[in-house]
Design brief:
Elements lengths: L7 H21 L3 H18 L4 H18 L8
Length: about 80
C-alpha cells in the first residue's frame, strides 16, 4: 500500500465515493459500533482479496486513526 500521486479525476472520484459512503451510513440508522464492524469487515475483505500483508494493513489503519484523532473532525464534517 504505497502513497502515489492521484490525478484530478481520481481525487474527484474518491471524494464522491467517500461522500456517497457517508450518506449511505447516515441513512442506515445503525449504531456506531455496527457501522465500524461493517466497514472493517469490508476493508479486511478487500485487503485479504488483494493479498496485502497483515502488518501493512494494520499500519495503514493505525496511521489513519492517528490522523483523524489529530484532526478532531466534527461528526458532520466530510473531508
Amino acid at each position: 500500500m504505497k502513497v502515489r500521486q492521484l490525478s484530478d479525476d481520481e481525487v474527484a472520484r474518491l471524494s464522491a465515493n467517500y461522500g456517497d459512503l457517508i450518506e449511505l451510513l447516515s441513512r442506515s440508522e445503525l449504531d456506531t459500533e455496527s457501522m465500524i464492524g461493517i466497514l472493517f469487515k469490508a476493508a479486511m475483505k478487500l485487503a485479504v482479496s488483494a493479498d496485502y500483508d497483515r502488518e501493512e494493513v494494520l499500519g495503514v489503519v493505525a496511521a489513519t486513526y492517528d490522523m483523524e484523532r489529530f484532526m478532531r473532525p466534527s461528526s458532520d464534517e466530510v473531508h
